[in-house]
Amino acid sequence: MTPNQVPLAASTPCPRCNQSKSVDSLTGRCTACYPIQLSDLEPSIQDYARSARWQKYKEFLVMFSLGPVSIGIILFYSSRGKGISPLLFWLVVIATPVLMGASVYSLFRKRQSLVRYYRLGQVSRFVTAIDAQLQYEAQRGRYPHCYFRVCELAPGSNWPDSLGRKFEVDIPPRSQERAVKYNFWKRFFEGFDPAETPKLWAKVYFDPNQSGSALIRVADSIFVTKR
Ligand SMILES: [Zn+2]
């Protein structure tokens, strides 16, 4: 066992519901009896949780309404005498309840995301950080992605296999992102590539559950791994 791992306390059953299924192994909180609220999270993590929640509802609404909207469009065109193949119509009619069911299913599956943010907010209290020099990389556009690349590790540190040397993080709020980028205009006028990002030393706290989930602290900013 490396110093970065703490033994996982065998989940003791919750005194209220006598179940250990929903007891968080890190903090011992029964998330069934005491559901995690947004306000239970560290303030900087609340921003991530808020944006994840917004994203979740947006995906739900789009997927849920896709079928009915398509049926509406088809009916609209048929009523104006434009020929729509009956096969297409029935395909859409059959796909609609499937899509609606899938959207509800995925909405409920994603309810767990608050528990994940809660754990990540607490993890620095329980594990020793790995010091790593990281470089930030943001891909903007319609489907943005943000990554960190590990450049160097502090002597004696081991990077766990559960997380690759380049890993994706949740899209950070602009206030957090500022810490890992150069000042664009300053960089531009100095004649450097403004899109380049600095290599910065960070503290990385891994969830002891070996999932590869981690919280990254760079100066005062916080980042969380995508999974
Ligand atoms: Zn309970």
Task: Give me a quick take on this structure.
The chain has 227 residues and is α+β, with helices and mostly antiparallel strands. It has five helices and six strands.
**Count of DSSP strands:** 6
Largest beta sheet: what is the strand line-up? 3-2-1-4-5-6
Identify low-pLDDT runs.
Answer: 1-7
Q: N-to-C terminal Cα separation, in Å?
A: 23 Å
Mean of pLDDT: 87
Please give a structural write-up.
With 227 residues, this protein is an alpha+beta fold. It folds into two domains: 15-126; 127-224. Helices cover 36% and strands 18% of the residues. It is built from five helices and six strands. It has helices spanning 43-79, 86-109, 113-122, 174-177, 184-189; strands at residues 130-139, 145-153, 166-169, 199-206, 214-218, 221-224. It has a six-stranded antiparallel sheet. A hairpin with a 5-residue loop joins strand 1 (130-139) and strand 2. Helix 1 (43-79) runs antiparallel to helix 2 and helix 1 (43-79) packs antiparallel against helix 3. The longest helix has 37 residues, at 43-79. The protein binds zinc ion.
Strand-helix topology:
Blueprint: H1 43-79, H2 86-109, H3 113-122, E1 130-139, E2 145-153, E3 166-169, H4 174-177, H5 184-189, E4 199-206, E5 214-218, E6 221-224
Helix pairs in contact: 1-2, 1-3
The chain binds zinc ion.
Zinc ion binds next to loops.
Question: Which labels suit this protein?
Answer:
binds zinc ion; 227 residues; 6-stranded antiparallel sheet; alpha+beta; flat; 2 domains; disordered N terminus
